[in-house]
Amino acid sequence: MRITRIALYDVELPYAGGVYHLSGGRTYTSFEASIVRVTCDDGTEGWGESTPFGSTYIAAHPAGTRAAIGLLAPALLGADPRRTERIGDVMDRTLTGHQDARTALDVACWDAFGRSVGLPVCELLGGSTDTALPMMSSLGAGDPEAMRAQVAAYRARGYRAHSVKIGASEAEGGPALDAERIAASLADRQPGEFFLVDANGGLVVESALRMLGLLPPGLDFALEAPCATWSETASLRRRCSCPIVVDELAALDADVAVAAGGAADGINLKISKAGGLTPGRRHRDLCRASGLTITVQDTVGSSLALAAILHLGATVPTRLLRGVLNCEDMVTRRVAALDTVRTDDGIRPGTAPGLGATVDEDVLGEPVAVWGD
Ligand SMILES: [Mg+2]
Questions:
Q1: Least crowded by CB within 10 Å, which of 85, 91, 330, 332?
Q2: What is the pLDDT of residues 37-54, one digit of tens each?
Q3: Which residues are CB-contacts of 135 (< 8 A; sequence separation ≥ 6)?
Q4: From ligand 1's centre to the CA of 246, what distance in Å?
């Protein structure tokens, strides 16, 4: 089984909530997805997606994703998509870094692998835990009472985990505003709900300590990406009692090894930050070995990104999994229909082979590039 053709599609994904606000004054209204279609000599196909969160979140941006896929795709022609680690070796030899671009190709290979053997990807990744995965929302930073209402709206739609963004500048209201945002978002917390408070690296240790000192006692949350560097994170972790989850700092294997070695209490495993399901599986196992909690997410994305999240999320031990991001809900355009199963307590991947995705080619339009025959 050999890859004979790779096609790349470019799809705009408008943000469903209007304007998304992150720390540092960053705003986002729309995202650009790179969708990859891999075709093999026996007719098997596989699909993958990579959608950067604009150009100011991590070191990835949509034009860069497409350009890097343009380097990687020709190198994969003739390769066997089922040999996923070897696919990674080829990409290592072709281009340094650019995990975002590698992701679309890696995920497409896993999809093709699953379709070729008639098994869902989660079974190839170790097997599904057969439990409903708690859905996690993603709330941009805003007015505290508006954030409280957003949490309530997600709760009503079955979400049991929430990622609450903070990181107000001093001019915007600083630690006091962030403390209000946290208190308001958690005000109606229900038993069993999980909250991440995510500063996206926007705080320094001093502002983080001030913010934590302003919070009322008894709020149950984990603090995600409070600071931009490992040294600041280590300093804060020595001086605060809340668990620290790393996200932007935990991209590559070596970063996750540092986290698992005692530098954090959990990771936010974003598939396009890791470089796909192949490294994502390694990060899952590093965390498992060290008892770190995991949320499985992606930078953003549509249906194919969600499918990859669910298939990896379904293989994380239940006691360690805190939630899966329903990124499809964050954007207004669906690129595929999924066979996911929704229940009152969460979501799980279906049982169709591969990612379980039926791509809507009308949404994709014509490919922007094709390699192979
Ligand atoms: Mg984060």
A1: 85
A2: 999 999 999 999 999 999
A3: 158, 159, 160, 161, 323, 324, 326, 346, 347
A4: 7
User: Distance, CA 248 to ligand 1 centroid (Å)?
Assistant: 7
Residues 137 and 286 in one domain: yes
Catalytic: 273? no
pTM: 0.97
Question: How remote is the CA of residue 270 from the centroid of ligand 1, in Å?
Answer: 9
**pLDDT (mean) for 71-77:** 98
**What distance in angstroms lies between residue 22's CA and the mean position of ligand 1's atoms?**
10
Options 165, 237, 283, 311, the catalytic residue: 165
Residue 167 has pLDDT above 90, yes or no: yes
Assign residue 64 the CATH number of its domain: 3.30.390.10
Work out the pLDDT band at 22, boundaries 50, 70, 90: confident
Same domain as 219, residue 101:
no
DSSP E strands in the chain: the ranges are 3-14, 20-22, 26-28, 30-40, 45-50, 135-139, 161-165, 194-198, 222-224, 244-246, 266-270, 293-297, 321-325, 336-338, 341-343, 346-348, 357-359, 369-372
What does the pLDDT read at residue 145? 98
- Separation of CA 367 and ligand 1 centre (Å): 31
Q: Indicate whether 133 and 279 sit together in one domain.
A: yes
| Active-site entry in 66, 270, 281, 322 | 270
Any catalytic annotation for residue 165? Answer: yes
Residue 202 CA, ligand 1 centroid: distance in Å: 11
In a shared domain, residues 56 and 152:
no
